[in-house]
Amino acid sequence: MSMKIALIAHDRKKEEMVNFITAYETVFEHHELFATGTTGTRIMEQTKLQIHRFMSGPLGGDQQIGAMVATNDMDLIIFLRDPLMAQPHEPDIIALLRLCDVQGIPVATNIATAEILVKALDRGDFAWRELVHKYKPGVPE
Ligand SMILES: O=C(CO)COP(=O)(O)O
User: Fold this and answer.
1) Domain ranges of the chain
2) Is 36 near ligand 1, meaning CB less than 6 Å away?
3) Tens of pLDDT, residues 98-115
């Protein structure tokens, strides 16, 4: 089953992201991919994958992905953050991760966890997300 997956990488993590996506391209090609602007462009340049690109992170891309998380529409997030450099949009980043915890969305912030999640995805361990989509309540009043 096809899952909605968000891919986000800070500048010094973009090469790592592209290498990772390339290594698991045969897994990712079965899913619906979303990304912040520059991350999406980099991945599309170096793979055959089609990605829905949002705004660049500092211009609101994290928030756009956060909006999908808020409505429980995103199934998995791989967010390779730069732990050693301050970001101008730090509040947006924290907000996105907070919403993942609100909804219980699987989110990897480093490559080791990302690899475990992608292997789980390939094995079908995310089938429970189908139930979330099926029984998702409407927007609360
Ligand atoms: O800043 C980002 C996430 O916080 C990533 O944005 P870009 O993919 O546009 O570089």
Assistant:
1) 4-135
2) yes
3) 999 999 999 999 999 999
What is the complex's ipTM, to 2 decimals?
0.98
In whole numbers, what is the pLDDT of the chain averaged over residues? 96
Closest residue CA from atom 5 of ligand 1: 57
User: Domain 4-135, what architecture?
Assistant: 3-Layer(aba) Sandwich (3.40)
Annotated binding residue 2: no
36 annotated to bind ligand: yes
Q: Which residues are catalytic?
A: 62
Q: What pTM, to 2 d.p., does this model score?
A: 0.95
Question: Bridge-partner residues for 9, per DSSP?
Answer: 80
For the chain, list the strands marked E by DSSP. 4-9, 32-35, 51-53, 76-80, 107-108
Query: What residue's CA is closest to ligand 1, atom 1?
Result: 57
